[in-house]
Write a structure and sequence with these properties.
Elements (H helix, E strand, L loop, with lengths): L2 H6 L9 H8 L3 H5 L2 E6 L2 E7 L13 H18 L7 E11 L7 E11 L3 E10 L5 E12 L4
Antiparallel strand pairs: 1-2, 2-4, 3-6, 4-5, 5-6
Length: 151
C-alpha cells in the first residue's frame, strides 16, 4: 500500500485487547445488551449478542435498537482501539442503518471494518448477521470524530 494507506487506515493500539474491551462494557449499555467480543485486529472488530426476549420489540421481532446497539458499539470500540497517538477519545457524528431481516431467537453477530481512519474522522462499516446462517440482518455505517486535548 502506498501513500494513500497512511491517510486511509489508523493503527490498532497495542495496549488494548479483548479483556480490556470486556472490562469497558461493565456498567454500560454494551453489558446490558450482552455484547461478547470475539476478535480484535487491524481495522476490524467482531462481537455477538445472544437474542433474549428483552431485546425484542412488542411485535416479537428483534428491536432495531438492539441491532443498532451491537453495530454502533462495534464501530465505537473499533474507533477506540484505533485512536491516533495523543487523541483523548472519540464521539459519534453520524449513523446510518439499513435493516434487511430479523431474528426472534439465536445469536446476532457483527463485524465492524475500518473504511477510513484519519486524524480527525474515522468511518466504520458494520454488517450484522444471524450467526447460525450468515444471513445479513443489517448494514450499518458510523462516522466517528476523534477528540484531541484542548490546547
Amino acid at each position: 500500500m502506498g501513500k494513500e494507506s497512511k491517510e486511509k487506515f489508523a493503527s490498532l493500539r497495542p495496549d488494548i485487547d479483548l479483556e480490556k474491551m470486556h472490562r469497558r462494557n461493565r456498567g454500560y449499555l454494551p453489558e446490558l445488551i450482552g455484547i461478547e467480543w470475539l476478535s480484535l485486529g487491524q481495522g476490524k472488530v467482531t462481537g455477538r449478542v445472544k437474542i433474549r426476549q428483552d431485546l425484542l420489540a412488542p411485535n416479537d421481532f428483534l428491536h432495531a435498537a438492539s441491532i443498532i446497539g451491537l453495530a454502533d458499539t462495534a464501530c465505537g470500540y473499533g474507533a477506540f482501539t484505533h485512536l491516533p497517538v495523543g487523541a483523548e477519545n472519540f464521539t459519534t457524528l453520524e449513523v446510518k442503518a439499513n435493516f434487511l431481516s430479523t431474528l426472534r431467537e439465536g445469536t446476532m453477530a457483527c463485524e465492524a471494518t475500518l473504511v477510513s481512519g484519519g486524524r480527525t474522522i474515522q468511518v466504520w462499516d458494520a454488517v450484522v448477521t444471524d450467526e447460525a446462517t450468515g444471513r445479513t440482518l443489517a448494514l450499518f455505517r458510523c462516522t466517528q470524530m476523534i477528540l484531541w486535548p484542548r490546547v
